[in-house]
Design brief:
It is built from twelve helices and seven strands. It has 302 residues and is an alpha/beta fold. It has one domain: Rossmann fold (3-Layer(aba) Sandwich), CATH 3.40.50. Helix 8 crosses helix 12 and helix 10 packs across helix 12. The mean pLDDT is 92.
Length: 302
């Protein structure tokens, strides 16, 4: 799976993950959000200077929001009087994700929050409209990541803060799937690049720092954040990560190979491999992400 092929497969998955995951898509998405995306979002907000001690109202755009990660986190940590004077916009290109985010907004009562279908590469949002723009695990999979980065900076007001996370190392589930595929009694290609956008090196802290400075940002900070998430059982793994195995098979296995070895067989082999490695116990996966932030100069023209 080269970058272009991987990008096409991944964009198709994001566009219609209801079809990719099946009937349990909502629970899978929200479970992964709670276990993986939310810890990253909390760390990102802290680096952007937003937290329980925030006293100044803000206008924040959650870019590539999926079903909503930063928006619900803000509902929990921001003082009610500050939240009442602030505004939050969640945007994502995936109609399915936006539908779920809108339902969550209503059922969970997100304060001063709007949800809209927005393309990160061309948002259509006004210049200088936000105090904060946050993108959690997004830039490395946007087809035109430079356009998306430029858009994020454009819509920040002078003094506004950009923040984002991207993966720094291969995630734990991918390592297990790669090693399991190598053990199969037939050739099972595993090609899952760390980024699917052609521009940039989104795993590289030095490239990210240089790029943000070159884009004119100040107070640039690039850090690495690591944490663990628990996998309760083999069944839990297959419920939450089988969709990614299917994505890899779709993107890197020839059609003939997929017909010879359908997903049911692959999932059974994966189960056997996991049971042999971990037994009946649960296990932890490590996640290591780049956390980056920068500020638009106060004297910048809008």
């Amino acid at each position: 799976m080269n970058t272009a092929t991987a990008g096409t497969a991944l964009q198709g998955f994001f566009r219609d993950f209801k079809g990719a995951i099946g009937n349990s898509w909502e629970e899978v998405l929200l479970q992964n959000s709670r276990n993986v995306s939310t810890p990253l979002a909390m760390r990102l907000l802290s680096q952007m200077g937003i937290g329980k001690d925030t006293e100044t109202p803000f206008k924040l755009f959650e870019n590539a929001c999926g079903a909503g990660v930063i928006a619900p986190a803000l509902q929990q940590i921001i003082k009610p009087n500050v939240l009442a004077q602030s505004s939050i916009l969640c945007g994502d290109f995936s109609e399915a994700a936006i539908e779920l985010a809108k339902r969550r907004l209503k059922s969970e009562g997100w304060v001063n929050t709007e949800v809209a279908q927005i393309d990160a590469q061309k948002t259509g949002l006004p210049d200088g409209g936000f105090t904060h723009v946050a993108t959690n695990i997004g830039f490395h999979v946007v087809p035109d990541s430079e356009a998306a980065l430029n858009e994020s900076i454009r819509i920040l007001q002078p003094g506004g803060i950009l923040g984002f996370t991207t993966w720094h190392t291969e995630v734990g589930w991918a390592t297990d799937v790669r090693e399991a595929f190598q053990s199969f009694p037939f050739e099972a290609p595993f090609n899952f690049p760390m980024q699917t956008t052609a521009w940039g090196r989104w795993t590289d802290v030095n490239w990210i720092r240089r790029t943000l400075l070159a884009k004119g940002l100040e107070d640039v900070k690039v850090d690495v954040f690591a944490f663990l998430s628990h996998v309760e059982s083999v069944d839990y793994f297959l419920s939450n990560f089988a969709m990614m195995m299917d994505l890899i098979m779709t993107g890197s296995w020839p059609e003939e190979l997929r017909k010879e070895h359908p997903r049911e067989q692959v999932h059974a082999l994966m189960r056997e491999w996991l049971e042999k490695k971990y037994g009946g116990d649960g296990w932890d996966y490590s996640w290591v992400a780049v956390v980056a932030s920068g500020r638009v100069p106060v004297n910048a023209r809008v």
